[in-house]
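Quick board copy: two proteins, each given as sequence then tokens.
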Amino acid sequence: MPTLDDILEQIGEFDFFQKQALFFLCLLSVTFTPIYVGIFFLGFTPEHHCRSPGMAELSQWCGWSLEEQLNHTVPEWGVHEASFSSRCRRYEVDWNTTDISCTDPLGSLVANQSTVPLGPCRDGWVYDSPGTSLVTEFNLVCEDSWKLDLFQSCVNAGFFIGSMSIGYVADRFGRKLCLLVTVFLNSASGVLMAFAPSYTWTVIFRLIQGLVSKGGWLTGYVLIAEFVGSNYRRAACIIYQAAFSLGLIILTALAYALPHWRWLQLTVTLPNFFFLLYYWCLPESPRWLIAQKQNEKAMEVIKHIAKGNKKKLPLSFQNLNSEDEDGEKPKPSFLDLVRTPQIRKHTFILMYSWFTSSVLYQGLIMHMGIAAGNMYLDFLYSALVEFPAAIILMLTLDRIGRRYPWAAANVMAGGACLITALVPDTLYWLKMTAACLGRMGITMCYEIICLVNPELYPTFLRNLGVLVCSSMCDLGGIITPFLVYRLAELWHELPLVIFAVIGLIDGGLVLLLPEMKGKTLPETIEDAENLHR
């Protein structure tokens, strides 16, 4: 009996239907970007200081009329206010004992600076920002600055939990149902977050987005990998990830145009409701249907693909193996990921590779952000460097294979981190060049692991395998801020040295995986176990 790959060779491995499906799913990939990295804009922390003794207090003590208040409300008062306040403390002015002249309050306050005690902020903070963010609206500064870390940790915790649960749902109940459910929950929680009345509700809705959004994105990744033939799987998956990079640029433009976080959140969320129309645009994965012994439904999807590609399915290919139609359907299990020796090896190496990619990818961005300049330009530059990485992979993966470019990308990322750490600041051009090469290398690693991970698992276990392994990416995202900000206090370049070691180790481990260039996707446990032969 013919396999699905044999049938796709007859009706088109990457023809009109697959290109249309890829376009639809790439739109989904673009909208995942604000959830994954949106904290850079939603939660940006502008320069701020504690509000100093107010004009109202001084006016009351001096007995100024409204006209006199206006005369004293000059730009210098704001300068004075900033200079007389630390970020988290303010000067406690006792108007009855402090020697302040109503004729020249600024000069007299400066003269008495050393005798005025410090106290906690009671009147809020002043932010040097034209827009709003989570920080400015909920005052997530000073003793409440940890709440911003909690906000981002909840997103990564949601990614971590959702990766496992949604992976099981997609392998148990189908890719299409899982995709639609996650799209709806992501859209609804995103809109509710834009109207959240308090910080607590904002965190709750963001956690829900984390629980479903990454699982939906990876389900779309698996779906397009199962729609196309083996010869075009690499190109389709890289284009899917390039759409994520495009989302970085679009997010930068939207954040620049909409500096208020609620409007930005609403703008990036509303297009997600469009994806509910995919109920009529995308069929279920034929590979999943075959793995579930639903051969009749699988053949209907195959005929739909053939019609979309304007191809006619040969009579000899219109029957799938139906002998096991009523047999036991394989059910995904977490134990299947470690039960057999080869799949167990694949699982552990892929988990470490996901962890490495996350730590280096996010860590390099955070490390550059320690001394960041223009927030929008820095983010834009970091996004543009991802496109050459995709082009390099398009030109090499089908010629050389997966393993050697993957190992080389890890070595390049790790080596670039080490060079960046050791090069003195006086050679700024060399330091920045090395940092850009490191970002390019780890971006290539990210794109390769997204391609290889689905290829190493059988169909009934594929989505679960991808999401469980990629959960280590979320664990890396949780600990990366501590690696960067705490280690940098000991030595500014120490995080880069740690990144280098982690990346170089991964470069050696990936060489232990089987080469998947030109191979068909495994359908059973036995197929996956024999990939190394």
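And the next:
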Amino acid sequence: LAPFPWEPAGRAVGLLGSRLPLAAMFADRTVAGAEVESLWRSARSARCEAKSCQTGKILTVEAAVQSHTSQDARVQTDQSKDAVQDFQQEVQVDYASLLSFLQRVEDAVIKELNKNWKSRAFDGFEVNWTDQNETVLCLHTLSYPEAQDQNLQVTSLSWNATGSVLACSYGRLDGGDWSTEKSYVCTWNLDRRGLNPQRPDLVVDVPSSVMCVAFHPSQPALIAGGLFSGELVVWDTSRTEDPVIWRTGMTDDTHTDPVYQVDWLPDAEHRNHHRLLSVSTDGKILVWREERGGRLVLAQGFAVVAQQVPRSAQLQKLAWGEAAVGVTSLSFSHFDPCVFIVGVEGGYSLKCSMAAETPALHRTGSSVPLRAPAELTFSPHGGPVYSVSCSPFHRQVLPLHTGAVRWTQNLFLSCGTDGQVHVHSTLQTQPLLSLQLSQKYLFCVRWSPLRPLLFAAASGEGNCHKRPCLTGAVHLFDFEKSLQKPALSLKQGAGERPVHCVEFNTKQTRLLAAGDAAGTVRVWQLSSDFTEQGPREMNHLEQLASETVD
């Protein structure tokens, strides 16, 4: 015990307050602290170490996951020159034995080659290295809002010489006041970046309804148009100020009815020049040439008159023999530039010739004599014919009385207000096939430029879930798949608006354009099924053309 502060050093006070001698008390000294190891803590620490949430140190050992040494195992061979020489020395050819072997098998090999040569197993087979596109897609929906605000309809379509620009004419096929109604010709360049489907690249204002348009076959900027007034106009789309470069004006030679079709014809007198052909329901087929001053002058003309067709085809109330028969459509042979087919209001299709010399008895004040071109009349539709199209594939050799032969167009299509498509041969009056595609009008039919057995038809009626509906449609008919029903019907849009026109693109061959009465143009991308010719398709076309009707 430590001494009290008031006690002298060396003495201490006892517990009972008595004073004891120093020897009997504890001596003053510093003693080291005693340490007693806790068995409890040691045991608990051991238990915590065994059952702790944190693991103890993990020992790792290098087990040669990555090798310490590398060795060339010749993954890529690299022979030495000596090895190559050794290999070449080892190759020895016994040419005598080889010759003996070839002589022994010669007859057997030639026999098999001849057998394969006569085999027809791979007839028509062509390797296709392009990607297959199995769906038909709508790439563009084009329109001109100002024309739609006037309730104008798409009356005609045409692709230019490059296949990149599409021209559309706006007007009316259901009548209208041609003297006051304004209309338009619009173009879209589908290859241009930033294409605006509702803003055409070019808009031409026309004072009369435009019934048809046609791009020049080699000059991409020239467009010809036929008007409701009977006039013809040619525009140059490269001129932004005044695109009109030629026109017929209103003369005695001008059509007196709407012009429903225009075509560019090669000029036989001037190489690389073209003349313009027009077709009208006044019964006249006129050929025009350009003159100085921007005038189109009549070069030659034809008139389809009642004396050349059955009486039932006459629609003009004139004396029989001098009555004009309204012409609605025309298609030239792809093999004979003198032969063409026309469709007339009376429901007939006529085979005609540019070389005809018979004068027409049609009384007109024409500046050139008109000739009667019809040579053969085909079995009629149940109403006016609206469109005809000659096959670009089929032709036939006909012997002439002189002993020579000539190629002739054989197959063509026609359609009309009876909803039927007729497949005709020019060698007989009855159709080879009559296809009821619609209960409504068929306004246009076009033979495919790629597939001999494929054509497209523009209708006022489509097919909705395998049942007829009133929405206009484009029917793709493939004779290789069926002779009775379309392979595919493309719905043009909502509402009861017919499709008036359809055009294949002969340059960008997967594109198909269709225009309707709602003022809308749709550009479709066709699948490979509709653009690639089958191995025996030409043979099937020959079989179809060879059929005869009793």
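Board note added afterward: The chain has one domain: 137-308+320-394+408-546.
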